Each structure stands twice: as structure tokens, then as C-alpha cells.
Amino acid sequence: MKDTILEFDETDGTVRADVARPRHASFSSLDSWRSCPGRWLAGRALPQRYEWDSPLVLGSLAHGALQLAVTRQPDVAHPDWHALVEAAVPMLREENRATGWKPDPIPDGVAKPDGFPMMEADWVDGAAAKLDGFRLTDVFGVPLHPAAAEQELRETIWGIPMTGSVDYRDAERGVVDWKTGRKPDRDSGRMRHADQLRVYKALLETAGVCEVRRARDVYVEHRTFETADLSDEAMAATGSRMARAWDEMNRCVGVGEFPLRPSGLCGWCPLANACPAATLYGAKARAAAARQWPADDARFRLARPATDPVAGFGLPAGTHGGNDDTRKETGVDLFEDLLGGTPEPEPKPKPAEPEKGVDPWETAAGKAALEKWGVPGKAEPAQAEPTGKAEPAQAEPTGKAEPKEPEPTGKAESGKAEPAGGKRLVFGKPFEPTVRDGDALNANAYGFSASIMLSATAAIMCGSALAGKTRDTELLVLRLEWAAARTVFGANVPDVPGLADGDPEPEALGRWLDSTLARDTNRVFMRVAERAGLMERSDVPMGWDMLSAKLKAVGEAAVSVLRDARTLWRA
């Protein structure tokens, strides 16, 4: 085996490797590919690493116990799970040995957090804890009538040579997939799990085993389930997703180059520390990444052409920043801190009340002027009306000064449309403020135009799959651009209170969007986003976690670009 087996290219956002073309696919392999081809590649090119709480090991033992439960004692609603896990270990050991390539179900050399080695009993205890409290009647609400468990199938479906192992098949033509993790919160996660059940339905029906009438993902640890849609439309959509992934997989294997798709799952990928596109946001992701392969492993190589002025922006880079190839640098640290909230502006001292002087209209000169202009008597100061209603117009002195217009009250006048939000739409100069006098919105201002274009950009990035997230995307881009500029240019970028909470103060937001720094930061951000493919239609569905992670990575890249621009001027 070559010393270097994975070569990352920051410029193109790819990883290069020489791997054998797959002869068949499983749902898990295609699902891993759709998540990130780099992650799929790691599973084929690198040996498996195990931790004391490895979901792969614990899940395998739990599946073995469930297999024994439904085949040996399906009429026992609440079996002895610990005893079944213990019995599953030798069963799985023999099955794995028979394949000739599967490892022992109990991995060696794994240490517990206290440093002591994990023993077989520890693994058994961990798997049994996941099943504790689960009853077989939780599956369909009635005692089970099993037809098969862990049924291996190999058929060509949707043009794909596919293999699969159906966890449980009921005599009433129901299919169950056991899940030892938690039920996904997001629709995209539940769709992936349902795709697996639809693959099983296609395998069973193509093989002529039976017609599948119902299918459920059963989350044993949390004693809940999710029923899959088995309609023709849903089956066709799953087939289309699987076929695209299979075609792309074979095409990439043929050229030896694989695209990297960063997401919120990067921390759990074996390549988390070596991949230049990896995005690690949140303490959990960083903690998970700390347990993965180190970035300086001899099997990894980073290709970064020194002649490329924007190396790293083929896909937004997050792992290698600065000159020391560390994930974080001072500017990025500040950038991430600023994403958590925009600082409140310093309180401004209240101006001192002006001293009251003599009313000029009470002086001799003032009285003479009033008399000269034909205004009889003393000019009374305007009084605030407690009811907020204007007094009837008084008769004007003929040919004399026009009466003063009443101050706006902030309420729409009768017969005049008022836009949503209570702001009057006015048409001033482009260089004038977006928000004027607190309640007027300048439709010609640079900031107002920028906000419209930002809404359009957010809609393009979301597409139809994330149509309900357009507003969230717009606000996230606003936060990222503001934080990138503030990181580099400091107090030259005005505060925008409320931006971190998704409710920016209009006047403050207008001051920021009206500025030249906001315009130029947006241009930088959008160029990097375009290079990252965020402004192009993709056949690969993108969830909110993936989109937000990619946008945050674009924000980090924008910080680097802006810092380079400032350095050019020695600023």
C-alpha cells in the first residue's frame, strides 16, 4: 500500500485516491456517498477505528439481540435483553468468521474514558442499555408474527446491483428496520431512513419474496417509530436518488477524484482533521473530530498550489488556515465569536438640555417683523394635542406666510397605503440613508437594493427543497457578512443590535447596508459562495444543516480575503 493514499486538493475541493470500482451497492454505501463522497472513500481506504461508545459495535450487538428475540421468543413482549445480547456475541462471531472479511464483533484494544480496557462484558452492558425498556409489542402494537429476520437479498433495482439485509419481516407483509440511535429531528434525516425501507421493499418485491404493505423505522432506545411512505411517487423519488448516487460513484471512481461536501456531520467523519473542506461547528462536532485520524497521518497529503491566489475556495476551507495549518486562527476565532451576537452599542450620553432664552417673537424686533408680514398678534407655540388629532385648519392671512405642516405622527393618513412594518415608502437619493426619520424607507437607497438582492440570493440557495428556510438563510448571510467585516475592519463596521437574534434594528441595519464596506463584503462573500457551488442547481438534496455549514465556511473564507485586501494597504 502506498504511504499516501488520500490527496486533498483545496483548490478544487476534492480528494484523490485509487480505489477499486464497486461491484454492487448497499443502501448504507449510497447514503454515505450522498452525504459526502470523501466520507465514503474513508470507509473504503482506511481501517475502522473504534471508541468505547462506538455506535457501530453497540448497534451490531443490539441488532443481534433483536434477531434472537424475534426468532426465538416473538411472543415475549419484554424479553431479557441483557441475556440476549450475551447470546448474540457468539452468534455474530460465527457469522462474521464465515464471511471471511468481517471483523470480530468485540474489537480489541479499545480503552474506556478512565484508561482501562473495554471488556466483552462492557460492550454487552452498553448494547443492553440501548434495548432496556423496549417491548416487541411496541413495533406494531400487537404480538409479532415473524416471517424472517436479517434476510439477505441481492437484486438489481433501478439499474443498481444492490444488496441488503432486511432486519425484520412480518408475516403480515410488514418490514421493520431497527434503529439504535434517536429519531431524526429534521425531515431530511427521516427521509434518509425512509429511503432505506423503500430500498428493502424494492429488493423484496423484485426478488419475488412478497409484496410489502407497510414499513417502519423503529427506534428501540426511545421506543418510538416512523412509518415510511410506500407510494409509487415516493418509491420513484428514492430510486432516482439512489441511481444518481450510483452513477456519480462509478464516474468518480473511474477518474480517481471525489468531491468533498462539508456538512454538520463533518466532526464524525474519519477525515475530519485532514479534510480542508471540513466544517466543525459546535462543541460536539469538535469533540468528535478529536477522536478521528490526525491530520499529520502519513496516508494524507494536502495539495495546495502556491501560485493559486485563492487556494482553498473551490470549496470553503476550514481545516487549514494561516501559515501553521491549524484549524483556527485569530481572525477566525473572532469571526465565530461575533456570530454568537453583535455587541450592543455603547450608550451615548444624553445631550445637555439647551438653556431657555428669550422668545424672539417677544422682542421689539420680532414684533415688528410679525407686523410687517401681516401676522396679527403673538405667534403661539404649537401645543401637543392629547388626542393625536389635528385641529381644523385656521383661516390663512391673505397673501401671507404658509402655515407650518404638522409633524408626522407615525400613523398612516387616511387614503394612503402604508407598507408592512409601519414604514412609509419614499423615493430619495441612492446615497441617502435607507431608513429616514425612523418611519420612512428610502426605496432608492443602496441598502434597500442590497436587501432585495439578498432575498433573491437566499431563495436561489434554498431552492425548492428548503423553500421554508429562505428567511433564515437571508439572516444567516447577513450575520456572516457583518461578522466577517467586523472581524477585519473592527469599529469601522457599525453595530447592528438584534442581528444575532434574527430581529435587527432597522436603523442600524440600514446604516450597515448603506456602507461601502457592506457592499464590498457582500461581493467577496458571493464570489466565494459561487465558487463553492451554492448558487448553482445541484441534483444532490441539501438539508439546512449542510447549507448553513457551507455558508459559515464561506464566511471564514471571506475573512481571509478581506484580511489580505487590508494587508495590501498596510492597514
Could you characterize what this model shows?
A hairpin with a 4-residue loop joins strand 1 and strand 2. The chain has 15 helices and 13 strands. About 10% of the residues have low confidence. It is α/β, with parallel strands linked by helices and about 575 residues long. The longest helix has 25 residues. Strands 3, 4, 5, 6, 7 and 8 form a 6-stranded mixed beta sheet that branches. A 4-stranded mixed beta sheet has the order 9-2-1-10. Strands 11-13-12 form a 3-stranded mixed beta sheet. About 40% of the residues lie in helices and about 10% in strands.
Identify low-pLDDT runs.
305-331, 378-420
Number of strands: 13
The helix content is 25-40%
Helix-strand string: EEEHHHHHEEEHEEHEHEHHEEEHHHHH
What is the arithmetic mean of pLDDT?
81
Question: What percent strand?
Answer: 5-15%
The rounded distance between the terminal residues' Cα atoms is 50 Å
Number of helices: 15
> Which shape, going by the Cα principal axes?
elongated
The biggest beta sheet is recorded as:
6 strands, mixed
Helices and strands: which structural class?
alpha/beta
What is the CA-based Rg, rounded? 33 Å
